Amino acid sequence: MSLPANVTPRARRPSSAPRPRRAQSGFTLMEVLLAMFIFLAGVGGIYGLLSTALGMQREGLGTARLARRVEAVVHQLEQDLSNGLHWDADEGLWVDVPLGSLPDGTLFSVVFAPEPGNERDGTLLVELRLAASEAALPRARPVSCVLTPGPTPAAAARALLHDRSDR
């Protein structure tokens, strides 16, 4: 077999010699799946933290709104109690407020919890419930407060009679 003049003969390798392998690049399927699992676990953790943080922020805003409204209710109640409202002179007891409202439309109910000795120190323990609607009022979270309305109307009347009798 003759070769053309312009072609130089190349040395042939024996067929039994292996060809040199090229370096392979890339990742195996297991490495890709493991990386995806780690990534998804991280994203899931971040999502869990964000949803928890948003829930806590929503609860904090609700508590702040409730605190402002409780302050307004306590202020209104202390004024009413100082003026002698919610006092049953026949029974000598404070009368619960089944439904009251603030100017912003917030509804509230007040339950007076008579504690022994309240008349002496002039404080009253009350349980407030605040809600946006009348239907939600029974399910509202109760808030306990201590009011200092001043002397009870009966105590003020006794003090007035005592002062008049001393003259």
Short description:
The protein has 3 helices and 6 strands, in the order H-E-E-E-E-H-E-E-H.
Question: Helix and strand layout, with pairings?
Answer:
Elements: H1 29-82, E1 87-88, E2 93-94, E3 97-101, E4 107-113, H2 118-121, E5 124-131, E6 142-147, H3 153-166
Antiparallel strand pairs: 1-2, 3-4, 4-5, 5-6
Molecular structure report:
- The chain contains three helices and six strands; from the N terminus they run H-E-E-E-E-H-E-E-H.
- It is α+β, with helices and mostly antiparallel strands.
- The protein has one domain.
- A four-stranded antiparallel β-sheet has the order 3-4-5-6, with helices on one face. A two-stranded antiparallel ribbon has the order 1-2.
- Strand 1 and strand 2 form a beta hairpin.
- The longest helix is centred in the first third of the chain and has 54 residues.
